[in-house]
Amino acid sequence: MLSRWRSQNHYLCHLMHYNYIAIEGTLGAGKTTLATRIASDFNGKLVLEEFEADKNPFLPKFYQEPDKYAFQVEMTFLALRFQQLKDKLSNLDLFHDFIISDYYVAKSLIFSKNNLQEDEYQLFARFFNIIFATMPKPDLLVYLYLDVDRLQYNIQKRGRSYEQEISNSYLEGIQQGYFDFIRQQQNDMRILLLDTNRLDFVANENDYRTIMDAIDQPYEVGVHRVAL
Fold it and tell me: What is the pTM of this model?
């Protein structure tokens, strides 16, 4: 698994501490990019969120009329995430050494709390809790933290048309939702909170290695904050 990494980079890193890693963060944090790179370098089974408009036709409508389409978009995402993770995590894969995903199903509750009216949220939460109880938790949840300005830069750069009008206040609300979730789960999960504001793990190989050094640790249950 590590031969290519060793020979090309002269750098030893392994992820055998964890069988299931989830990368999380607010929109534009770099979750998909990082998860894809790690899966490629270390023979991981990659699970990417199905966020495209053809998978969730309510998503573009939500960004135009959030009050009208919030419940539909959140219920659709919950169904997609549950079905995908159920399928990917339940099937034994002899050709990969671990699983890495660019999301965790709990993001459905985080986004819905920010996007739904209170009565809609309470109904959504009832459905979510039934599903959540049946889902395995990642061995390590990695949260990528970026300031809102950096998030906006990344969102604009990737150029999805329906995301171009996302406000700073919306991103701040989602980010706060993640922080609340992390506090609630600190006694039940291994959570690694990485401040990546000073890093560019796409363009800078040393920055990527720095992140891998942080991930490649045998953490205890709890929240571990690392400023990189």
Answer: 0.88
